[in-house]
Amino acid sequence: MSRLDDELKVAFQRREPSADFAARVLARLDEAPLKLAPPSLWQRLADWFAVPAWRFAAAGAMALLLVVIGFVVMRAQRATNFEQATPAVIATTGNTPSVLDDGVKVPLNSAVAQSGPVRTGGRSPIHHHAAVAKAPKPSAEAEAAKEKVLFALQITSDTLNEVQRAISADRPTGEKPEPVQNR
Amino acid sequence: MVGWEGTTTLEEATEARIEQALARSVAGDQLAFAEIVRQHQGMVFSLAYHFLRDRWLAEELAQEVFLNLHQNLSAIQSSAHLTFWLRKVTAHRSIDQTRRQKVRPQVSLDDVPEPAAPHAEEDFMLSETLRRLVETLPDKARMVVMLRYQEDLQPAEIAEVLDMPVNTVKSHLRRSLAMLRDKLSRSVGEVRA
Questions:
Q1: Do B63 and A21 touch (CB under 8 A)?
Q2: Cα–Cα nearest to B117, from B105, B129, B102, B106
Q3: Is A171 left (phi over 0), alpha (psi -120 to 50) or beta?
Q4: Which of A46, B121, B122, B144 is deepest in the core (most CB within 10 A)?
């Protein structure tokens, strides 16, 4: 123990507060209502599980309400998606009774279908393909109309081929056929 | 040997009395609590006073520590635990108080007057100089020095009170003592020259 240690002990020796210190502490105790120490985290957690049953019932009702709201919102969202997808499906497949009744429009719409997906309302191609995949199959009436049109086209084509051959047979050898002009 | 045994017996008796007072205080006996306050007020007040260097603030802080003790009496398990608890709460509250209110006068080490050569009749002045030198230390280092020399605690005990590693406590002590020794030896040299 050095002299410095001794000097420090002397410098920092204990001192007494004023004579009425303890009395003033007791007076402050009487003045201030006894404040309980704040509960610990575990105690608060335990308190939460010790709540009355009605609180659990209220929490359950709230959870159920949230599930119902979620279901309703999901249904509404699906309906909106379907409504947005329907025009695109019609434009792509021409698959409505009014269009199918008019046989002339079918090849035109088929050409549209071959040219690629139709972008409607800024929807992404992924959504569009999904909408097309969900489109209902054409009816039997539509299929029959399509067959009739194709059959008529086939007859027309055959007739045109026969006419072409007849013209070629009447022309002398080495003469080039005149190009057919559409009128 | 007889004296040592006598001291031990006195300490044991004091401890037993404090533990009885503790039990009665928990049961709501205010006189028993007053006895606990009287037994420990010197320790609590001195720690706060030496740290804050303001008698009024130190008394306020000491009172708050005892009010806090009254609220936590049920958590105190023994006389030794009570002393440890009081030291810990006083030390931390004193440090917080200094940081919050900046009550500590910002004294630079160079502004501290050099002490005269240490003579027996000038001990009071030397003590005051030492206190002012310690005042220039950082908060935690200052509290380490006070717990070491006022409460005569070992580094391991100080580490427990201040929630810091023992090596940090030893490092604070080593550096603080080196600084104090250097300052004092320089001043003594100057006086002799």
A1: yes
A2: B129
A3: beta
A4: B144
d(Cα A54, Cα B104) in Å, to the nearest integer?
55
Angstrom distance (rounded) from CA B184 to CA B174: 15
Distance, CA of A38 to chain centre = 47
Distance CA A43, CA A27 (A): 31
CB contacts, 8 Å: A16 with chain B: 41-42, 45
CB-CB under 8 Å, A21 with B45: yes
For residue A121, what are its two tokens? 């309302």
Q: Which two tokens stand for residue A168?
A: 């070629």
> Tokens at residue A104, please?
């002339």
Nearest to residue B82, comparing CAs of B36, B16, B34, B113? B36
Distances from the Cα of B65 to the Cαs of A29, A99, B90, in angstroms? 12, 91, 6
**Distance (Å) from the alpha carbon of B174 to chain A's nearest alpha carbon:** 12
- A53–B contact, CB cutoff 8 A: no
Rounded to an integer, what distance in angstroms lies between the CA atom of residue B147 and that of residue B44? 11
Nearest CA among B87, B103, B106 for reference residue B148: B87
Closest Cβ–Cβ partner in A4, A12, A37 for B146:
A12
Give per-residue pLDDT as tens, A6-34.
889 999 999 999 999 999 999 998 887 65
Cβ-count burial B40-72 (b if 16+ within 10 Å, e if not): bbbbbbbbbbbbbbbeebbbebbbbbbebbbee
Residue A26: its pLDDT value, please? 92
pTM over 0.80: no
Has the ipTM of the complex gone over 0.85?
no
Whether residues B72 and A37 touch (CB distance < 8 A) is answered with: yes
